[in-house]
Amino acid sequence: ATLAADFVVNATASGFKINYVEVGNENYGKWEVPYPDHPEVVNATAYAQTCVAVTKAIKAVNPSVIVGCVGDLPESGSSVPFPDWNKQVLSLAEESMDFLIIHEYYNKKGKPRDPWSMLNYDCLDEKGPNCGPLAVAAAVKAEASGPLPVMITEWNMVQPYSAPTWELIQGLFTAKHIGESMQAGLMGTTFFALANGQQPDY
Q1: Better-predicted residue by pLDDT, 195 or 19
Q2: Distance, CA of 12 to CA of 187 (rounded, Å)
Q3: What is the pLDDT of residues 111-132, one digit of tens each?
């Protein structure tokens, strides 16, 4: 918490305006430190307590900074070890945070790769948290105790096509996602990597 507050103070003193801070990144995941080496110390309660402390420390040095805590909407059968992450984090940190962070990568493994299915989040015949921004907003609303802003700070989909075809599909998908994010009343969305590590990766 002290480190985060010091960052805000030092960045501001250096001429940078800090508007938003995210506390961590995908802290529910086995791929994020310290889980690979110390899984026993990773849990939603510990994260929520950290997020509350960091938010309090940042607000003490600059109340205008908007602070977000990490949420998750795991799929059924997901390898994420904390299926009730949101419930636990919100129960302890909802009143402290300014918004909930969601990362969503659509078109999961085993799903159709035809353009129409991809443009519809691979959920033409199902409903759930992985069916686009409207469903993300609805899922968070169902778990939160009151109005809670949501920002999808990473989103994208897989890239199974050659560059010319992919550019067309990605352009349509981006427009659809942004439009539905506005319709859902999301605080914001952040596109992460046009091809997300594939080729071409713009």
Answers
A1: 19
A2: 24
A3: 778 888 888 887 766 554 457 8
What is each CA distance from 46 to 18, 37, 135, 190, in whole angstroms? 26, 16, 27, 27
Phi, psi angles (nearest 5°) of residue 10: -70, -40
* Mean pLDDT for all residues in the chain: 88
If one counts every other C-beta atom within 10 angstroms of the C-beta of residue 66, the result is: 18
Contact predicate 136/152, CB 8 Å: yes
Instruction: Give the chain's end-to-end CA distance (angstroms, integer).
Output: 35
| DSSP collapsed to 3 states, the chain | CHHHHHHHHHHHHCCCCCCEEEECCCCCCCCCCCCCCCHHHCCHHHHHHHHHHHHHHHHHHCCCCEEEEECCCCCCCCCCCCCCHHHHHHHHHCCCCCEEEEEEEECCCCCCCCHHHHHCCCCCCCCCCCCCHHHHHHHHHHHCCCCCCEEEEEEEECCCCCHHHHHHHHHHHHHHHHHHHHHHCCCEEEECCCCCCCCCCC
**Residue 27 in this model has a pLDDT that exceeds 60:** yes
Could you read off the pLDDT of 38-67 as tens digits, one per residue? Answer: 999 999 999 999 999 999 999 999 999 999
Q: To 10 degrees, the CA torsion angle through 173, 178, 182, 188?
A: 140
